[in-house]
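**Protein of interest**
===
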Amino acid sequence: MGFALPEHTVPTVYALPGSPARLWLPVEPGFALSPGDTSGWLRGDHPGAGLLGDTGRANARLGEDGLSLTLSPALASDRGLYTGYVNVSGLLVQRNVRLEIMEVMTSQKGPVTLGSSLTLNLSTSYPEGLDWVDWGHQNASGGRRLDPYSLYLPHVTWGDAGNWSCTLYRNQSVVGHALVHLEVTDMAPLGSDLPTSFPGRATLVVLFTLLVLIVALSVLAIARKVKGQRRNFPALDVNLDASDTPNKKV
């Protein structure tokens, strides 16, 4: 009675952080509450779960299509189980819904250095709810999967820049979709360690070494020149101050 959903079935809703998340439980055709009956949502699936009312972010509604809860915007802290309930003539009927907040994280923050390695990770605390994940990019050079939820790019190229997509599937249907924008640069951030294969690193090291060598040779040549002049002209090593020589009167 009430929900048109088997008791032990727990649907999962996937949402992006910052976007609206709508949790929904279908009700039986023609179901409606009588005066004195109640419905609503609880945060959690245990008897002491907190009651969720209409607030600035949460909005609960019972309509012809079912019992819904909209969280706008959804936050990472909203991840977890929710319980929808109807209380009809003192009979309490409950069903659970799981909310999963999905994010694509990168192993490097900010622009990614050309030639470096990068890992894209799908952040999910409930992988059991998915059948598979697809990674896509229009012009990407390709990557190697570390697991179903991680993609490894061993050598970032200019073609890897742009939007990477991560599509989640369950029961042959798309249940979630996330994008992450990748910016590629040939300038390494300060304090970062570039891989030894990075082409610009060898050039920078050679130029810096040559510059230090040139400065060292120049200083050495100037020192030798000054020393040679002092040998040829001993008077250069003598510093006379006429003011310190006493005047003799005749």
Summary: The chain has one helix and 17 strands. Helices lie at 199-232. Residues 17 and 224 are 69 Å apart (CA to CA).
